[in-house]
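User: Could you go from structure to sequence for me? I need the amino acid at each position, not a summary. Structure tokens:
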């Protein structure tokens, strides 16, 4: 562990400069401070980014008209804008060699390519270090990582991953390939390594927790906390993980395009990362009416993301958290807009409603519910010998109870429901957007 702590210090000194410890101290001081100071810092960062975007970025120079615009009047940045104007969105203040190419996993369609810079990554990592401390993480302490994005796990740099795993004191379990054997091997290794924290995809965490529970295993790891990220954390995922591993799950919300957006505290509130992010809710009243989340990334000067429609639905809270931290709170996170169902009356139904109703239904091994239109859904099922027509009626009735009694539910029996290229399991998909018939 001492070697890993020294390696973390060396790594951060190299990546962030000799003063990274003071930078981390400043980050902690800011995010632990008074809301007024946090908001003042955020406003200054936002104004600086907007000036930079107008002066150096062709796309925003034409769009903004001035270097001090009212951000609420700036048109939102859509994924199609990035695909159509990728080069024009890049700042002329940086050479092509200074750009770091990145891409989403494509969980909701075609992967999205974009650019970031070294400054963005340094600032992102400082914020991650701050928030992960809430779950008990400290650099160099052993950590189990249940992950597996292809961009992170494959390619010519695989040997670098193995080296990083060693010096970071991390143990990886591929969340895209969870078998009885791989989970058993990981469990036995953790019995020796005694990880202090777990970082995991929620669905992969749930599968691993089920394996541990169903095999009557009793972890003796003394976990400080579990960090879940990159997918929706459904209540039954959290409940099982906290029961099996006897510790709290801290949900972390972010995106590959913009970094860490918010994280849960010990009181279960989701605090917004105002140091790196300016977050808006596209709603008439963001405190009472859910709307799509718009993100302005304050540190990506290579390719500014301003009012980016990330594809999630949420709502704000005006409360001061009992934990004492004064960062604003994201009261509700309904998940991907593509996983939030709509009714003809305009009601939004979180996809988690269906996952809670359908999990552990006898005779169903896997399922995927797709809302094709306001009047039609497709329910794909992988079933076993315990399947009955009574189960079919229960599933259809559960869907119609919330979407409407006249909604047609087409049941399709399949051999398997393959993972998308992103590796993130999609149990619910809605193709319906606001204003659809």
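Assistant: Here is the amino acid at each position, in order:
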């Amino acid at each position: 562990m001492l070697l890993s702590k020294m390696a973390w210090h060396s790594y951060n000194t190299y990546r962030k400069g000799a003063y990274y410890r003071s930078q981390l101290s400043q980050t902690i001081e800011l995010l632990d401070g008074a809301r007024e100071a946090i908001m003042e810092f955020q406003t200054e960062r936002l104004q600086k980014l907007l000036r930079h975007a107008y002066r150096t970025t062709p796309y925003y120079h034409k769009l903004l008209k001035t270097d001090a615009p009212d951000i609420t009047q700036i048109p939102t940045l859509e994924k199609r804008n990035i695909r159509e104007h990728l080069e024009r969105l890049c700042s002329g203040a940086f050479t092509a060699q200074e750009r770091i190419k990145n891409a989403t996993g494509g969980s909701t369609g075609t992967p999205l390519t974009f650019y970031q810079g070294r400054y963005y990554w340094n600032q992102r990592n400082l914020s991650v270090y701050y928030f992960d401390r809430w779950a008990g993480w400290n650099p160099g302490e052993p950590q189990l990582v249940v992950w597996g994005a292809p961009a992170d796990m494959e390619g010519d740099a695989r040997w670098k991953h193995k080296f990083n795993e060693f010096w970071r004191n991390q143990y990886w379990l591929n969340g895209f390939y969870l078998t009885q054997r791989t989970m058993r091997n990981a469990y036995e290794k953790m019995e020796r390594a005694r990880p202090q924290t777990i970082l995991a995809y929620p669905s992969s965490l749930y599968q691993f927790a089920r394996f541990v529970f169903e095999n009557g295993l009793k972890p003796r790891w003394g976990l400080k906390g579990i960090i879940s990220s990159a997918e929706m954390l459904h209540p039954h995922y959290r409940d099982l993980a906290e029961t099996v591993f006897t510790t709290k799950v801290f949900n972390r919300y972010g995106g590959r395009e913009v970094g860490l957006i918010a994280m849960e505290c010990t009181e279960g509130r989701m605090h917004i990362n105002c140091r790196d992010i300016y977050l808006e809710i596209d709603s008439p009243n963001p405190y009472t009416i859910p709307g799509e989340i718009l993100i302005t990334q304050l540190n990506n000067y290579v390719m500014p993301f301003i009012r980016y429609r990330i594809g999630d639905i949420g709502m704000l809270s005006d409360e001061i958290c009992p934990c004492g931290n004064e960062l604003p709170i994201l009261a509700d996170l309904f998940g991907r807009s593509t996983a939030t169902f709509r009714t003809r009356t305009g009601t939004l139904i979180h996809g988690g409603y269906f996952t809670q109703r359908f999990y552990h239904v006898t005779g169903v091994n896997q399922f995927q519910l797709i809302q094709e239109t306001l009047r039609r859904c497709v329910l794909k099922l992988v079933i076993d010998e315990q399947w009955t027509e009574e189960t079919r009626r229960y599933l259809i009735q559960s869907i119609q109870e919330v979407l409407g009694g006249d909604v047609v539910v087409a049941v399709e029996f399949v051999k398997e429901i393959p993972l998308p290229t992103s590796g993130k399991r999609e149990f619910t998909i809605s193709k319906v957007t606001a204003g659809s018939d």
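One structural detail worth keeping in mind: Residues 149-153 have pLDDT under 50 and may be disordered.
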